[in-house]
């Protein structure tokens, strides 16, 4: 009799689990709170494979790193040259009258940047600190300010300072300094950079595929019941944050409502609630898939994902990563990556 009771209990438990998760071969999930029609074998347009990294991309990456190491020095013994950064005062006049937006003091301008209208920057070349001169220019016909478009103007310009940027040359010593993987020579560093860019290209591919699959899964999902109390709390917190921001900037909540393109605070609140529910839906689907497929990473696998998060964000070590993010956040990110990996392996890419 006792044996029959145990068997009956086991059967009841099995039926309960079946009603929650569906059978082992199921491609969907159905619970009291959530229904996912299909998450396994989802069809998406084929994502292009990660492109091969070129030598030009490697050189561009290194150039950017060298640019970060550039130094500047004050120039006092020569005139302005192309590429210099100058500090200038200027005043623009049309028909002898200063126009709005045409006057500045201690403005920094890099010659050759194309920041100002054609001819302005070139006119500064050849002038020394302390010199004041007039430049006759013309605004382009398609200039945004219609009152100035196509108009002849005169700018009075004073050069007040000149600085020159020096970008270091790549050497074995600098390559070792720039390296995050103990490269000791230029050749080794270039190989390291190629590996970095190749990995980044692979991550871009993975992210594109995961996004496509995730979008399809959310389309196949329906939340039957939200935790409304939690939703309301999140909405209240976000509205309170907006009000606090408004007060700090000397604005009223009505100003914020208008700034975001709404007519009333109720409309804003409804949009915030929609966003909160969308986020909660994603979270519910993620956890449901992770639970059904037993995807939550632990132990060494969790450490692998921590390292991947560190690498993706150019953070050297896991210890450094943990100083920037708390354990719960890192576990949530790792779970998302684990689910993304599983979904990518279990989707079907279809030629466009």
Automatic annotation (TrEMBL):
Task: Tell me which domain of life the UniProt entry assigns to the organism this sequence originates from.
Answer: Bacteria
- Domain PPIase FKBP-type, first and last residues per copy: 83-144
The family database entries (Gene3D superfamilies) matched by this protein are listed as: 3.10.50.40, Trigger factor, C-terminal domain
Identify the keywords attached in UniProt to this record, alphabetized. Cell cycle, Cell division, Isomerase, Rotamase, Signal
| Signal sequence, start to end | 1-24
InterPro entries xrefs:
PPIase_dom_sf, PPIase_FKBP_dom, Trig_fac, Trigger_fac_C, Trigger_fac_C_sf, Trigger_fact/SurA_dom_sf
Q: Which reaction does it catalyse?
A: [protein]-peptidylproline (omega=180) = [protein]-peptidylproline (omega=0)
Q: What is its main location?
A: cytoplasm
Q: Does the keyword Signal apply?
A: yes
Specify whether Cell wall biogenesis/degradation is a keyword of the entry: no
Q: Name one GO molecular function term.
A: peptidyl-prolyl cis-trans isomerase activity
From the Swiss-Prot or TrEMBL record, state where the protein is found: Cytoplasm
Enzyme Commission number, as recorded:
5.2.1.8
Protein name, UniProt field: peptidylprolyl isomerase
- This protein's species is Ohessyouella blattaphilus
What does the record give as the organism's lineage? Bacteria, Bacillati, Bacillota, Clostridia, Lachnospirales
């Amino acid at each position: 009799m006792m044996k029959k009771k145990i068997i009956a209990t086991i059967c009841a438990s099995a039926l309960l689990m079946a009603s929650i998760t569906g059978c082992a071969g199921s491609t969907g999930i159905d619970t009291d709170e959530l229904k996912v029609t299909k998450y396994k074998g989802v069809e998406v347009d084929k994502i292009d494979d990660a492109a091969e990294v070129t030598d030009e991309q490697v050189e561009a990456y290194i150039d950017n790193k060298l640019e970060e190491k550039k130094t500047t020095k004050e120039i006092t013994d020569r005139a302005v040259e192309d590429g210099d950064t100058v500090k200038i005062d200027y005043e623009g006049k049309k028909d002898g009258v200063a126009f709005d937006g045409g006057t500045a003091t201690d403005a920094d301008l890099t010659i050759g940047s194309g920041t100002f209208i054609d001819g302005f920057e070139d006119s500064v070349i050849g002038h020394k600190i302390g010199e004041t001169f007039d430049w006759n220019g013309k605004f382009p016909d398609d200039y945004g300010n219609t009152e100035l478009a196509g108009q002849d103007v005169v700018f009075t310009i004073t050069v007040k300072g000149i600085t020159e940027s020096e970008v270091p040359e790549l050497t074995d010593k600098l390559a070792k300094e720039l390296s995050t993987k103990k490269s000791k020579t230029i050749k080794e560093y270039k190989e390291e950079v190629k590996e970095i860019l190749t990995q980044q290209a692979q991550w871009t591919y993975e992210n594109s595929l995961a996004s496509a699959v995730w979008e399809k899964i959310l389309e196949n999902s329906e939340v039957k019941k939200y935790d409304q109390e939690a939703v309301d709390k999140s909405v209240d917190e976000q509205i309170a944050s907006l009000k606090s921001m408004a007060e700090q900037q000397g604005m009223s909540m009505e100003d914020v409502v208008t700034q975001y393109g709404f007519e009333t605070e109720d409309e804003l609140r409804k949009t915030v609630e929609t966003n909160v529910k969308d986020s909660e839906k994603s979270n519910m689907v993620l956890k449901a898939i992770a639970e059904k497929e037993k995807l939550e990473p632990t132990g060494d696998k969790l450490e692998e994902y921590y390292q991947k998060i560190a690498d993706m964000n150019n953070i050297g070590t896991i210890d450094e990563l943990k100083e920037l993010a708390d354990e719960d956040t890192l576990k949530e990110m790792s779970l998302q990556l684990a689910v993304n990996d599983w979904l990518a392996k279990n989707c079907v890419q279809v030629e466009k």
